[in-house]
Amino acid sequence: MTNIKLGEVLKQARLQKGFTQTQVAERAGISHPYYNLIENEKSSRPPSFYVIEKIARILGCNAKSLLKAVELMQLEHKRKKVETMEKRLGQKPPKSRPIPILKEVPDFIPNNPEDFPSEIITGSYDPAMKDPKAFMYEVEGDFMAPEIKKGDLLLICPAHIDKIKSGDIVAIRNSKGIKRLRRVVLEHDQIILIPENSDYPVVIWRKEDGPEIIGRVKEIIRRR
Q1: What is the dotted CATH code of the domain comprising 6-87?
Q2: Residues 158-202: pLDDT tens digits?
Q3: What local confidence, expressed as pLDDT, does residue 168 receive?
Q4: Taking Cα atoms as reference points, which of 70, 218, 69, 20 lies closest to residue 130?
Q5: Tens digits of per-residue pLDDT, 26-49?
Q6: What's the CA gap between 77 and 45, in Å, rounded?
Q7: Around Cβ 6, how many Cβ atoms within 10 Å?
Q8: Domain 97-221 belongs to what architecture?
Q9: Region(s) of the chain under CATH 1.10.260.40
């Protein structure tokens, strides 16, 4: 089993090539802030094999060893999720329910799923979900491609901003009612909204914009 540190290898290879992070990100078709999260290993979930393979080609790295490192990161990520679930086993599980599928991100999450506006509900998803406020969102645009594609279903669960970490993908709104689905970088007085698709700009919302987290993406489900 390899002990390779993905971020360290990418940084050394990038410096040897004389590239900036921005140059690597542009060539890989991802945003600079997202590449920064990968190189500093601060993303809340491991990067995809697709993205790492592209970066490896750009930097002339051994793709096989990098992909193995990503595989180990993904296993560790899953292990931590299992540990979290095991800690909850001692608690009385809440009543499960089907998850509503919404065609748009709601302005807020009601206490009961039946209270979502009927015009945005397109169906329900099984298996049942124990989180009483969780919902599924059917992706419309390509802002988060290639990781999240049009037609994918996202399991979104409510989360207060103090539970969000830099690198999480969240549904977020501001005081003007503008809603976005983006990967976020949290700073002291602002939130940076990062699209995976480099065709779209990175946006910064400051405190005066009144950013409010609606929910965090916990799972991506492909519909093909």
Answers
A1: 1.10.260.40
A2: 877 678 889 999 999 999 999 999 999 998 899 999 998 889 999
A3: 93
A4: 218
A5: 998 888 888 988 998 888 788 888
A6: 7
A7: 23
A8: Ribbon (2.10)
A9: 6-87
